Sequence to fold (375 residues):
Amino acid sequence: MEEKPQQLMDIEMLNLAMEAFNSAATNLQTSYDALKEEARRLREEVEEKNTELSYFSNLLESVLNNTPSAILVVDETQEIAVKNSAADALLSDIGERALKDMLASSFGQGIFDYAAEGGRYYRINAGELRSEGLNGAVYVVDEITILKKFEQEKQRGIQLQMMGEMAANIAHEIRNPLGSIELFASLLERDLKNNPSAVKMTSNIVQAVRTMNGIISNTLLFTKEINAEKREFVLSDIVDEVILYLQPLLKEKDVTLLNRLDENHSVLCERGLFYQVVMNILHNAIDAVPHIGGTVEIVSEKSDISPHTLSLSIMDNGGGIPQTMRNKLFLPFQTTKTKGAGLGLSIAYKIIKAHGGDIIADSDGATYTKFTVIL
Fold:
């Protein structure tokens, strides 16, 4: 068998090498195309995930910054690490020191109510935070001053109802024998008219009985349902009438009365009932001020938000209301005076509530007291 020339063999080997190269190149191109397609798919998937992540990140940020609750994250050193816009507003309102004191009052996890200065209340929902690179606590803070006011109003209403029922029963039981005492004392006074000392004693008995009867009448007024038949009156006319009645007391104590009523302000009320409210509050103010340097200021204002809402404020520079009395002010039989049954403010409160209004008391407990009637 004749052997192939060496040159021919070299050509065949070169052809085989070329075929192997072409096959490898084809396989490489196929793998490259597949890899390129996978890279494109992964890139699109990453872009889709980034878009989704950006959407949820923006959504979370929007939720945090648009919620009315203040949300704060505090690290282990009690420094604020994260906060939303409501927390910024709270921080600006009460200050960093007060905010940190508020948060420090919440021990551990749970829900806590916090009484701040100025009669404001906050509810704090505290939880533990364990995250990579950050350990501490997360707080959700809401102001609940209005809610607390509603709760106090409800509780006060329950107490007033219970005390009213009790007072009505006691008043009726006392009134009958009082009537008999006054009758017999009057008869005795007539029979002893020739004995001046005896007449004076019986006259004192009659006067004491009438005083007690007045207290009982106020008690019964407190227990009765009040239905105010409202009409429009000029506010200053009613207040001036009260001032005229209290003029002797104002002169006796040498009280400076600052009357800043707007004569154009009118009030929708039942005149006799509203007169009694003004009488009770103004009389208390005059009683509270010192004999020298006593000042009582009366101011009326229209609300900027609601033009049909009127406020009447009576402020004195007396010794203020003790903290222990703040939550008892409008309950019956609560008083710091040596005289009186403690019914004036409770009756005034009931009258104003029957008018659909409110009474707000403000005092620093030392230098002033201010009552504001809102109708």
Remarks:
- The longest strand covers residues 121-131.
- The chain is about 55% helix and 20% strand.
- Residues 70-143 form a domain with the Beta-Lactamase fold (CATH 3.30.450.20).
- The longest helix spans residues 6-66.
